[in-house]
Every structure is written in C-alpha cells, then in structure tokens.
Amino acid sequence: MFIDLDRTDKPVVFVTPGRGKDTVAKFKAFLATHGGSPGRIVEVVCDMSGAFIAAIGESFDNAAITVDWFHVVQLFTKALDEVRRAEARHSKLPKALRWAILKRADGRLTETQAAALAELEASDLFTAIAWRIKEKLRWVRQAQSVQAARWRITNFLRHASEILDPDPILDPIRKALATVETHSKRILQRWTSSHSNARLEGLNGLFQAARARARGYRNVTTFATMIYMIAAPLGDLFQST
Known about the structure:
59% of the residues lie in helices and 5% in strands. It is mainly α. A two-stranded antiparallel sheet has the order 1-2. Strands 3-4 form a two-stranded parallel ribbon. α6 runs antiparallel to α7 and α10 (198-213) packs across α11 (220-231).
C-alpha cells in the first residue's frame, strides 16, 4: 500500500498485492498512467526490506529513503521474542515475561510483569542480554540531532557487540544489529524527515478491523477495493483517469 504523506485526509494512493520489487514497479506504472511523475517523488518512508529499497532506488532516482524508527524497534522486538522462545525450550523463564518485554521497564506494567522484568534484569539469561540491547534503542531514539544520533547508533552497535554471548541462540539479535548497521544512513534520515509510517500503521488498524467485521474477504481485489473506499481520494483518482 502506498500513501501520500503530504495529504491530510484519505492518503491512500495505490494498493497492490505483494511486498517486494514488483510492487514498486506497479506503483511507478500507476503514476505514469494517472498523470504522475516518478521524478517528483522526493522521499520514501519504508521498512528495511532489501528488495524494496533496491527497487525504490531503481524507480525513483530523486527520492531519499527514510527507514522509519517503528521498523527498527519492530526488528529488535521480533528478534528478542525469537531468543525468548528458543530459551524457553530448555530454561525456566520468569512468568508473564512474554508480554512484559514488549513494554517499557518504567511504563505501565502489572505487578506480575514488573516482577518478571526485575527478575530478568537480575539474571544472566540470554533473553536478558537480548532485552537489554533492545531497551538501549530508547537511548538512541532520544538523540536531538543527526550528529548525536549517528554517534549513538555507532556506540549502540559497539556496546551490543561487546555484551553479546557467542551462543547461536542470540543469532536473531546479531542479525538485527547487522541490519541496522547496513541501513544506518537511511535510519539517520529519520532525524531530518518530518514523515513517518505512523499514519500507515494507524490506517492498517482500520483496514484490519473492517476485514474482521466482514469476516474476511475471499480475494485480494475485494480487500483492496475496501481500502480504497475507506482511505483513498476517489474523486481525485477518477478525475486523473
């Protein structure tokens, strides 16, 4: 799904099945047939999909690529959960840990969740190492400038590498760190960009709720049509055909 981040209302521009390179090519073709110009795309906010980013570079030469911070946090959250599930197979972990590690240590926690995090923090579990690394992202996010963010990302990667145990159970975290290092310049764009994927994630919640109310859709075309009906500027789109 492609949205126009400059629109204040109904920002969905194009919907197509898939997640990779072909989706970008289809969007470029859509622009060409609706009076748009690929050269006028100046910024694309996305996740860290290598295929998608490569396709953006090929199709939109003038566009800066910004990796939204949401996707950085999501990357480490998933890696942390992989470590937790792997360790739970052979070690006893604190109760309520599954949901506790998704929250801030100083955030809204139940008594059981707070106890679980306290126990985790005092332990030498592999999940504790992964959790400490993920929590360090909050420190990076608080940087007030590009220069400060660059320094913090560099130190975050170095610190994480130093505390990582060589055990293969932590490979998901190692992979996440390598991904951040690869895309660090695009992540830094977040400190100069005024856009994020927050609106897209919010819209996705609306679409999934509509899908649930309809008890699912039998094909992708019907689901795409529903998305257009909810959040696309249909009048503008019809006028451009």
